[in-house]
Amino acid sequence: MRKSVYLLLLIALLTLSSCSGNEQGNAKLDYDQTKKMIVDILKSDEGKKALQDMMKDEEMKQQLIMDQTVVTETIEKTLTSDKGEQFWKKAMADPKFAATVAKSMRKEHEALLKDLMKDPEYQGLLMDVFQNPEMQKDFAKALKSKEFREQMRQVVKETIDSPLYKAKIQDLLLKAAEEAGKQGKSGKEEQGGGGQGGGGGGGGQ
Protein backbone atom coordinates (compact mmCIF):
# COMPACT_ATOMS: atom_id res chain seq x y z
CA MET A 1 0.00 0.00 0.00
CA ARG A 2 2.80 2.36 0.92
CA LYS A 3 4.62 1.76 -2.36
CA SER A 4 1.46 2.60 -4.26
CA VAL A 5 1.23 5.89 -2.35
CA TYR A 6 4.84 6.70 -3.24
CA LEU A 7 4.13 5.94 -6.89
CA LEU A 8 0.93 7.98 -6.87
CA LEU A 9 2.73 10.94 -5.31
CA LEU A 10 5.50 10.74 -7.88
CA ILE A 11 3.06 10.57 -10.79
CA ALA A 12 1.03 13.44 -9.38
CA LEU A 13 4.11 15.62 -8.91
CA LEU A 14 5.34 14.91 -12.42
CA THR A 15 1.91 15.68 -13.83
CA LEU A 16 1.75 18.88 -11.80
CA SER A 17 5.14 19.99 -13.10
CA SER A 18 4.19 19.33 -16.70
CA CYS A 19 0.85 21.11 -16.34
CA SER A 20 2.37 24.17 -14.68
CA GLY A 21 4.39 24.94 -17.80
CA ASN A 22 1.29 24.89 -20.04
CA GLU A 23 -0.84 28.04 -20.09
CA GLN A 24 -3.85 26.70 -22.02
CA GLY A 25 -7.29 26.37 -20.42
CA ASN A 26 -7.41 22.57 -20.34
CA ALA A 27 -3.92 22.48 -18.83
CA LYS A 28 -5.10 24.85 -16.12
CA LEU A 29 -7.95 22.47 -15.36
CA ASP A 30 -5.56 19.50 -15.23
CA TYR A 31 -3.25 21.48 -12.98
CA ASP A 32 -6.03 22.28 -10.50
CA GLN A 33 -7.27 18.70 -10.51
CA THR A 34 -3.76 17.35 -9.97
CA LYS A 35 -3.11 19.89 -7.24
CA LYS A 36 -6.31 18.84 -5.46
CA MET A 37 -5.32 15.19 -5.80
CA ILE A 38 -1.90 15.84 -4.24
CA VAL A 39 -3.47 17.77 -1.36
CA ASP A 40 -5.95 14.93 -0.76
CA ILE A 41 -3.11 12.39 -0.80
CA LEU A 42 -1.00 14.42 1.63
CA LYS A 43 -3.97 14.79 3.98
CA SER A 44 -4.61 11.05 4.06
CA ASP A 45 -3.03 8.82 6.70
CA GLU A 46 -1.23 6.83 4.00
CA GLY A 47 0.19 10.00 2.47
CA LYS A 48 1.43 11.32 5.83
CA LYS A 49 3.01 7.96 6.64
CA ALA A 50 4.66 7.81 3.22
CA LEU A 51 6.21 11.27 3.68
CA GLN A 52 7.43 10.37 7.17
CA ASP A 53 9.09 7.23 5.82
CA MET A 54 10.66 9.19 2.97
CA MET A 55 12.14 11.73 5.38
CA LYS A 56 13.58 8.92 7.51
CA ASP A 57 15.35 7.36 4.53
CA GLU A 58 19.11 8.08 4.71
CA GLU A 59 19.50 8.33 0.94
CA MET A 60 16.67 10.87 0.80
CA LYS A 61 18.29 12.89 3.61
CA GLN A 62 21.60 13.01 1.75
CA GLN A 63 19.84 14.04 -1.45
CA LEU A 64 18.07 16.88 0.37
CA ILE A 65 21.35 18.08 1.87
CA MET A 66 23.10 17.96 -1.52
CA ASP A 67 20.26 19.83 -3.22
CA GLN A 68 19.98 22.48 -0.50
CA THR A 69 22.17 24.97 -2.39
CA VAL A 70 20.24 24.43 -5.60
CA VAL A 71 16.93 24.87 -3.78
CA THR A 72 18.15 28.06 -2.09
CA GLU A 73 19.36 29.55 -5.38
CA THR A 74 16.09 28.62 -7.10
CA ILE A 75 14.04 30.23 -4.34
CA GLU A 76 16.17 33.39 -4.45
CA LYS A 77 15.79 33.68 -8.23
CA THR A 78 12.05 33.11 -7.97
CA LEU A 79 11.55 35.67 -5.22
CA THR A 80 13.61 38.34 -6.96
CA SER A 81 11.96 37.86 -10.36
CA ASP A 82 9.25 40.22 -11.63
CA LYS A 83 6.60 37.54 -11.15
CA GLY A 84 7.90 36.88 -7.64
CA GLU A 85 7.69 40.56 -6.71
CA GLN A 86 4.15 40.80 -8.07
CA PHE A 87 3.16 37.70 -6.11
CA TRP A 88 4.51 39.06 -2.83
CA LYS A 89 2.91 42.47 -3.37
CA LYS A 90 -0.45 40.81 -3.91
CA ALA A 91 0.02 38.31 -1.09
CA MET A 92 1.17 40.90 1.48
CA ALA A 93 -1.88 43.01 0.66
CA ASP A 94 -3.92 40.30 2.39
CA PRO A 95 -3.96 41.19 6.15
CA LYS A 96 -4.28 37.55 7.26
CA PHE A 97 -1.37 36.39 5.11
CA ALA A 98 0.79 39.35 6.19
CA ALA A 99 0.01 38.65 9.87
CA THR A 100 0.90 34.97 9.46
CA VAL A 101 4.23 35.81 7.79
CA ALA A 102 5.03 38.41 10.45
CA LYS A 103 4.31 35.96 13.29
CA SER A 104 6.33 33.16 11.70
CA MET A 105 9.37 35.44 11.24
CA ARG A 106 9.07 37.42 14.47
CA LYS A 107 12.21 35.98 16.10
CA GLU A 108 14.26 36.48 12.94
CA HIS A 109 13.06 40.08 12.64
CA GLU A 110 13.91 40.80 16.29
CA ALA A 111 17.41 39.35 15.86
CA LEU A 112 17.90 41.37 12.65
CA LEU A 113 16.77 44.60 14.31
CA LYS A 114 19.10 44.02 17.28
CA ASP A 115 22.03 43.53 14.91
CA LEU A 116 21.06 46.60 12.88
CA MET A 117 20.80 48.78 16.00
CA LYS A 118 24.46 48.01 16.68
CA ASP A 119 25.46 49.09 13.16
CA PRO A 120 26.75 52.72 13.10
CA GLU A 121 25.59 53.20 9.49
CA TYR A 122 22.06 52.07 10.36
CA GLN A 123 22.06 54.31 13.44
CA GLY A 124 23.00 57.26 11.23
CA LEU A 125 20.16 56.46 8.82
CA LEU A 126 17.71 56.34 11.72
CA MET A 127 18.91 59.71 12.98
CA ASP A 128 18.42 61.21 9.52
CA VAL A 129 14.88 59.83 9.42
CA PHE A 130 13.99 61.11 12.89
CA GLN A 131 15.44 64.55 12.16
CA ASN A 132 13.39 64.92 8.99
CA PRO A 133 10.80 67.71 9.59
CA GLU A 134 8.05 65.85 7.73
CA MET A 135 8.72 62.70 9.73
CA GLN A 136 8.64 64.68 12.99
CA LYS A 137 5.25 66.10 12.03
CA ASP A 138 3.94 62.61 11.29
CA PHE A 139 5.25 61.34 14.63
CA ALA A 140 3.65 64.24 16.51
CA LYS A 141 0.35 63.62 14.75
CA ALA A 142 0.51 59.90 15.54
CA LEU A 143 1.29 60.54 19.21
CA LYS A 144 -1.79 62.75 19.52
CA SER A 145 -4.12 60.26 17.86
CA LYS A 146 -6.79 58.45 19.85
CA GLU A 147 -5.66 55.05 18.58
CA PHE A 148 -2.07 55.58 19.74
CA ARG A 149 -3.17 56.76 23.18
CA GLU A 150 -5.45 53.76 23.57
CA GLN A 151 -2.61 51.46 22.53
CA MET A 152 -0.23 53.10 25.00
CA ARG A 153 -2.83 52.81 27.76
CA GLN A 154 -3.15 49.10 27.04
CA VAL A 155 0.63 48.64 27.01
CA VAL A 156 1.00 50.48 30.34
CA LYS A 157 -1.81 48.43 31.87
CA GLU A 158 -0.27 45.15 30.70
CA THR A 159 3.13 46.27 31.99
CA ILE A 160 1.76 47.20 35.41
CA ASP A 161 -0.18 43.94 35.65
CA SER A 162 2.91 41.93 34.73
CA PRO A 163 4.22 39.82 37.67
CA LEU A 164 7.80 40.61 36.64
CA TYR A 165 7.12 44.35 36.72
CA LYS A 166 5.40 44.06 40.11
CA ALA A 167 8.40 42.17 41.50
CA LYS A 168 10.78 44.88 40.25
CA ILE A 169 8.64 47.64 41.78
CA GLN A 170 8.55 45.75 45.07
CA ASP A 171 12.34 45.44 45.08
CA LEU A 172 12.72 49.17 44.36
CA LEU A 173 10.34 50.08 47.20
CA LEU A 174 12.19 47.82 49.64
CA LYS A 175 15.54 49.33 48.65
CA ALA A 176 14.12 52.85 49.00
CA ALA A 177 12.79 51.99 52.47
CA GLU A 178 16.17 50.59 53.50
CA GLU A 179 17.96 53.72 52.27
CA ALA A 180 15.48 55.95 54.10
CA GLY A 181 15.99 53.93 57.29
CA LYS A 182 19.77 54.21 57.03
CA GLN A 183 19.59 57.98 56.47
CA GLY A 184 17.23 58.41 59.43
CA LYS A 185 19.48 56.41 61.71
CA SER A 186 22.54 58.36 60.57
CA GLY A 187 20.77 61.67 61.24
CA LYS A 188 19.83 60.65 64.78
CA GLU A 189 23.40 59.60 65.54
CA GLU A 190 24.69 62.98 64.34
CA GLN A 191 22.14 64.82 66.49
CA GLY A 192 23.11 62.69 69.49
CA GLY A 193 26.79 63.43 69.00
CA GLY A 194 26.11 67.18 68.80
CA GLY A 195 24.09 67.14 72.02
CA GLN A 196 26.85 65.38 73.93
CA GLY A 197 29.42 67.89 72.70
CA GLY A 198 27.26 70.82 73.83
CA GLY A 199 26.80 69.28 77.29
CA GLY A 200 30.54 68.84 77.74
CA GLY A 201 31.20 72.49 76.88
CA GLY A 202 28.67 73.74 79.48
CA GLY A 203 30.29 71.65 82.26
CA GLY A 204 33.69 73.23 81.61
CA GLN A 205 32.39 76.72 82.50
UniProtKB/TrEMBL annotation:
<dbReference type="InterPro" id="IPR041262">
    <property type="entry name" value="GerD_central"/>
</dbReference>
<feature type="signal peptide">
    <location>
        <begin position="1"/>
        <end position="22"/>
    </location>
</feature>
<feature type="compositionally biased region" description="Basic and acidic residues">
    <location>
        <begin position="180"/>
        <end position="191"/>
    </location>
</feature>
<feature type="domain" description="Spore germination GerD central core">
    <location>
        <begin position="64"/>
        <end position="177"/>
    </location>
</feature>
<dbReference type="Pfam" id="PF17898">
    <property type="entry name" value="GerD"/>
</dbReference>
<feature type="compositionally biased region" description="Gly residues">
    <location>
        <begin position="192"/>
        <end position="205"/>
    </location>
</feature>
<feature type="region of interest" description="Disordered">
    <location>
        <begin position="180"/>
        <end position="205"/>
    </location>
</feature>
<keyword id="KW-0732">Signal</keyword>
<protein>
    <submittedName>
        <fullName>Spore gernimation protein GerD</fullName>
    </submittedName>
</protein>
